[in-house]
Amino acid sequence: MHLAVDRHPGGMLVTDHRGGTEVVPAAAFPAYVVAQEGRSTPPRWVWSDTALWYPPLLRAGLRVERCHDLRLVEAIIAGAEGRAVRSFAARPRAALAMPERQSAALFDLEAEPREAERTPPAAELHAEQLAALARASTRAPGALALLAAAESAGALAAAEMTFTGLPWSAEDHERLLVEALGPRPAAGERPVHLAALAAEVERQLGVRPGSLAIDSPPELVAALRGAGIDVATTRSWELQRQRHPAIAPLLQYKTLSRLMTANGWNWLDEWVRDGRFRPTFVPGGVVTGRWASDGGGALQLPRQVRSAVRADEGWVLVVADAAQLEPRILTALSQDAEMARAGAGVDLYQGIVDSGAVDSREQAKLGMLGAMYGGTTGQSARVLPRLQRVFPRAIAYVEEAARAGERGETVRTRLGRTSPSPGEEWRERQLLAAAEGAGESERRDARTAARGQGRFTRNFAVQGTAAEWALAWMAGVRRRLWSAEGGPLARQPHLVFFLHDELMVHAPAARAEEAATALREAAADAGRLLFGDAPVTFPVTVATVQRYSEAK
DNA sequence: CGTGAACGCGCC
DNA sequence: AGGGCGCGTTCACG
């Protein structure tokens, strides 16, 4: 939908592509709509903050095709230039001052007058940002501008996903809870299955019924030790190594207790309305460029409850997952031809096995994850030398990123997102340890801190570039679905969920194939956008299902 | 008493 | 003893 916007006595006059008009109240309208970049392209709205301005437009039945999010782009540029973000962008929700030629009455300048005075008008900020993006030194010309566009497109998608919501069957969710936990208990009470498990743990530990505070880690550890079980913490992985009849019911208790507290009845009451879960996504919420979420735990949706994510009657969920995204990103970043060969099929880990580097898919996976996260022990460390022999360039890439971090340097993603510098404290510690007369413990602490920073930068390059690929993918899917046809967002195929390397489209059943094609084509485009014609593929698996739990 | 760190665990 | 998160609970502290 192409929108034109003009000032109007009652607010802002918005004209859609069919000539229909609507007046949007001034209080609900963004500071600036800008930049007609040519007749052939739709307008790009330039505003301080998509998350602030877009939702009211969506509620008014309007959609914005392209935008430039000044707050998100400021964060990217500031990071690349190694400086702090300007004040308006540091605030969680950022309005901008009005330009002088527009009516100040549209906005409440009294709220924060000094901030308003300090903040350059949007048009000016936009021009400055475009210049900064253009002069940024990145591997490929225009990379940072591409990142700015992708980040902004992601912000639009995030607002739209919150607006339409994820189709959620509260009824199925309830049923699942009752089955696992028992009927909903009164407030403060334990569901019957949970109570039974707690009692069984007490029995097996030989303590008086009702005397064990099972939810208190210190007390639980004490009780376990009292029963002769040698544990230092109550972590599941540590419990799993023990042989004792109390362990099985305890582990089950922990799993169900988690379900209850994280995604139980309270969660359902708070987050699901009218058959939709409406999480708030936070684009750029993670330093690496990944999204975060705010409330509802959208990015930690446990597998246990995914059967409650259910398409509307006559609709389907088209769920796409980028297969082994991060190792493929590393392959492209490092231009490792041998690993590209291993990734030619749909299963890169199997390809690594077939190359002869390792013996099993599990080893390949563990080894690659260890290489990308900086694992130094266990199985992953053991297979690393074997991977290094066959894929020297890929391994060298992450090793170099780690060394840079250990030296206190920053690293960059493919499109130029820059890792934050280690803090002043970190640098002081390194200087102290390097100084004459430094003690052994000081040197050890500094070394530990340096290695920690190395693990961070090692992972930043890969995770951050994967996030960029995912943004480009999402933007491409959105554009394809968009151009398919006009009409209200919720009446045509639309994105409903994003999870780092997964996208979900809710679509009328008859248009499922169209959505699947969009997901596949946009993935191929994203690879070309980031890496040109490098011989690296980014296959996606696409499943058309009724419930999220039926995918993969 | 309220606040915040620490824990533990869910996701990628 | 592995990178990035969010969130609910417990517990120490002011």
* Computed CA radius of gyration, to the nearest angstrom: 26 Å
Main β-sheet description = 4 strands, antiparallel
* Ends apart, CA distance between termini: 34 Å
Tell me the number of structural domains. 4
Oligomer: single chain
> Approximately how much helix is present in the residues?
40-55%
**What is the mean pLDDT?**
86
Briefly note the structural class of the backbone. Answer: alpha+beta
Q: What form results from the Cα inertia axes?
A: globular
Protein name: DNA-directed DNA polymerase
Keywords: DNA replication, Exonuclease, Hydrolase, Nuclease
Enzyme class: transferase
EC number: 2.7.7.7
Q: Can you describe what's shown?
A:
- GO terms for molecular function: DNA binding; DNA-directed DNA polymerase activity; exonuclease activity.
- It catalyses: DNA(n) + a 2'-deoxyribonucleoside 5'-triphosphate = DNA(n+1) + diphosphate.
- One of its GO terms (biological process) is DNA-templated DNA replication.
- Its EC number is 2.7.7.7.
- Residues 302-511 form the DNA-directed DNA polymerase family A palm domain.
- The chain folds into four domains: 4-164, no CATH class; 171-267, Taq DNA Polymerase, Chain T, domain 4; 278-325 and 468-550, Alpha-Beta Plaits, CATH 3.30.70; 326-465, DNA polymerase, domain 1, CATH 1.10.150.
- The longest helix is centred in the C-terminal third of the chain and has 45 residues, at 440-484.
- It has helices at residues 50-59, 70-81, 87-90, 113-118, 122-135, 143-164, 170-181, 192-205, 217-226, 236-240, 247-263, 265-271, 325-334, 337-342, 348-354, 361-373, 378-390, 392-406, 424-434, 440-484, 512-531; strands at residues 4-8, 11-15, 21-25, 44-47, 66-69, 166-167, 272-273, 276-277, 280-282, 292-294, 315-322, 494-498, 502-508, 540-545.
- Residues 27-32 and 98-118 have low confidence and may be disordered.
- Strand 2 (11-15) and strand 3 form a beta hairpin.
- The chain is an alpha+beta fold.
- The protein starts with a strand and ends in a 7-residue tail after the last strand.
- The structure holds a DNA duplex (12 and 14 nucleotides).
